[in-house]
Amino acid sequence: MSIVNDTLIQGNYTETFRDTDSIISIVAKQCATTTSCPLHAATGEDVEKRLFNIFESLRTNLVTLYDGVETMVYIDRKFALAALAAAVYSPYTSMGQLFDAMSDLEKGEGPKLYHSLANSTTDSTLTCQD
């Protein structure tokens, strides 16, 4: 038996996105309280704007990642949003890593974001015994 979010089964994606907005707001407010946060800014709203601007910049400015052998990955807005979607499922452990990766992405560096998404999707289905 798989554990799946009921809002996804019902097709209620609006509620899912509202939850995502709430999680981002909470984490952004916490980020504004400490200079050790990779996306630190004066206020939570400023942190949210900075994060939003990173996502928006990826519409036209792709980040190219080479694996050092022969594979090339383009990190675009869809890729970054997928990483956000994966992070909000376990915000206590993943949002800090996401903010760190997004800070690197802001500088044109994509390995942390690429690996965070790759690691989060390798075991994304939870099962339980009846």
Task: Write up this protein.
The structure is a single chain. The termini are close together. The chain has one domain. The longest helix is centred in the N-terminal third of the chain and has 20 residues. Strands 1-2 form a two-stranded antiparallel ribbon. By secondary structure, the protein is mainly α.
SSE blueprint and pairings:
Blueprint: H1 6-9, H2 13-32, H3 44-57, E1 63-66, E2 72-75, H4 77-87, H5 91-106, H6 111-121
Antiparallel strand pairs: 1-2
Helix pairs in contact: 2-3, 4-5, 4-6, 5-6
Outline type:
globular
Query: Whole-Å distance between the termini?
Result: 8 Å
Succession of helices and strands: HHHEEHHH
Poorly predicted regions:
1-10, 123-127
Give the mean pLDDT: 81
Number of domains: 1
For the biggest sheet, the summary is:
2 strands, antiparallel
What is the percentage of strand-forming residues? 5-15%
Structural class by sheet pairing and helices: mainly alpha
Radius of gyration: 16 Å
**Count of extended strands:** 2
Lateral arrangement of strands in the main beta sheet: 1-2
Helix content: 55-70%
- Assembly type of the chains comes to single chain
Number of helical segments? 6
Properties at a glance:
130 residues, two-stranded antiparallel sheet, 6 helices
Brief synopsis:
The chain has helices spanning 6-9, 13-32, 44-57, 77-87, 91-106, 111-121; strands at residues 63-66, 72-75. The protein has 130 residues and is mainly alpha-helical.
